[in-house]
Amino acid sequence: MLPRHFSYQDKILLLQHGCTDLLHLAQRRGALLHKLLSGTSIFEQDIQKPHGRLHHADWLKLLQNCQQQLNSPELPFLLGTTLLHNRYISVSQCLLYAADLKQALRQLLYFRHQLFPGIYVQLYRRQQGIVLEFNTGLTHGQQHSTAMTVLLSLLLSLIKLQLGSSDGISAQLKHQPPALALPYQLHWGCAVSFNQPCDSLLIEHHLWHQAFSAANPAKFAAARRTCRQLNRILPRQRGLLEHICQLQRRALPALLSLEQAAQQLGVSASMLKRQLNLHKTNFAQLLDSVRRDAARQLLQQGCYSNRQLACKLGYSDEHNFRRAFKRWTGLIPSSFKELQNSH
Amino acid sequence: MAVSFGSLKPVQLFDTLDILGEGTTLLVACLWLGLIISSRPAGPVTEWLYYGSLLLMYSYFLDLLDEFIRYPDTLRLMSWLESLPAPVGMLLLTYGLVGWHREQRSIDRQLRGRELFLRDHHLIDPLTQLYGADYLHAVLGREIALHRSQHKPLSLLLLDIDDFAGFNRRCGIAAGDNYLGQLSELLSSQLRHSDVICRYSGDRFVAVLPDTSDVQAQIMRQHLQQHLSMLCKDDNQPQLTLVCSSVSQSSAAAALQAALNAVTTARRQHAPLTVQNA
């Protein structure tokens, strides 16, 4: 059975899982609490409650408020590190005591709805290593880059802590290069490229099995138990966009219609349309993005001809596929491949 | 001339109200002239204003004079001399004021641009209330050009916290933020007003020391080192690397890079608080 899907107004985040840390960081930098909370439905009294919750729209509004009130480019980086070292977040404890990167990331993927419900990951193999591609299960709007920076900071500070350095890792980011790339160098210490087609992390093969310096099986098991217990009050839920993309990805090369997708999600077609409007997107656009991402990933893995790709992605012939690909990237598939290999 | 042509009026013909009114206008015109001379720099605009108010004063003076002196009816010259300069003076004054307005507008524009650069609160790091890296680059570039043209020495002082990430991990980010605040307060209290202190990146502070030779910078570094060692009583607190370097490069980026390299070499020697010259 598919897990439930959520939208902006579902209270699926715990206040203790990020919100309080963010508020403390911002307050120490001189921001006023009531101004940070303005426009959200969070009350000051609720912040210290152990199981206080907030919904995703509030979380995004909070990130936006922090950005508007403070000019502190280091804030998302620090937030990522703080989340990793927060003792009350059992997912982070899980990551810290894992045996190696593979085990840590597996836990993060499995329990990500407890910490980053709005972001999902796709893994695929390339020559140089394994790519983690991050996508959003909810439209994040202006806060996209901040949210990604928080997640990547968490991952990279984990790697730097456990493996000693972040050599052998490179990050690709969707957004424009900032005026000053200094915080990226300082906090991440790995190669970062901007203006890329997706947010992703390329991790070389040998790093996946290198033992973590703080590995502790007993503590790891305990943390994982706590995560499982937490699952009872924070059940596994997925963002709506993630759900639809997943359905379509499984259905390829066939293309889903709006009605079919709505039926599989258990809502009416008009309801689904309305919800997609809320996410500032539509069904056709989503299908297009699924095909685009799939095409890019398959091309990067190499060894597929245009005809095979067209066939896999549900295009009637390779001309149509080539045209679509040029619309997405501005390049024809062969030159895209060359460009990727040259990097 | 007025006295030689006319004859004095008898006292009973004096009109007190007229004398009071015209006397006041004359005094005010005198005041304007004085203000213009004292507050304006020399230049064409000031000259227009000066001659304008001079003419106005002259005309008001004659006006006041004819309250006391009666001229023969045949003499038209005196009434011309009295009434013509006033409108001409007013016109000159107006022209001068237009020039003043233009001048002020361009000055305002320039000031606004400079204020924007110097006081832009976006350039200030909210945690430490010091300037950020953007500002450092801009200021350093400007100071290098200035000091080169005047052949004065310029120095940089760098303070680096060793393993700040580890400190944050051990004691929490709150303690880390607190420590950064302490450091920035100490730096701003111990350095001179002319020094520009910036938080270059998370755990690095850079101070630009204008008109400071290498020897002076060394003295300042030692002084600062003593204060810092008082701050570092707690064993748990991180080691600091303090480095000063005299700037000989022609670009801000190169100078900063040289100074940062000096920090790395100082650190590699496992001797914190050592002196390096870049």
UniProtKB/TrEMBL annotation, chain A:
Residues 242-339 form the HTH araC/xylS-type domain. SMART domains: HTH_ARAC (SM00342). It comes from the Bacteria. Keywords: DNA-binding, Transcription, Transcription regulation. InterPro entries: AraC-type_N, Homeodomain-like_sf, HTH_AraC. Pfam families: Arabinose_bd (PF12625), HTH_18 (PF12833). PROSITE patterns: HTH_ARAC_FAMILY_2 (PS01124). This is AraC family transcriptional regulator. It comes from Rheinheimera aquimaris. The lineage of its organism: Bacteria, Pseudomonadati, Pseudomonadota, Gammaproteobacteria, Chromatiales.
TrEMBL record, chain B:
Coiled coil: none annotated. Residues 152-278 form the GGDEF domain. SMART domains: GGDEF (SM00267). It catalyses: 2 GTP = 3',3'-c-di-GMP + 2 diphosphate. Its EC number is 2.7.7.65. It comes from Rheinheimera aquimaris. Keywords: Membrane, Transmembrane, Transmembrane helix. Pfam families: GGDEF (PF00990). This is diguanylate cyclase. The keyword Membrane applies.
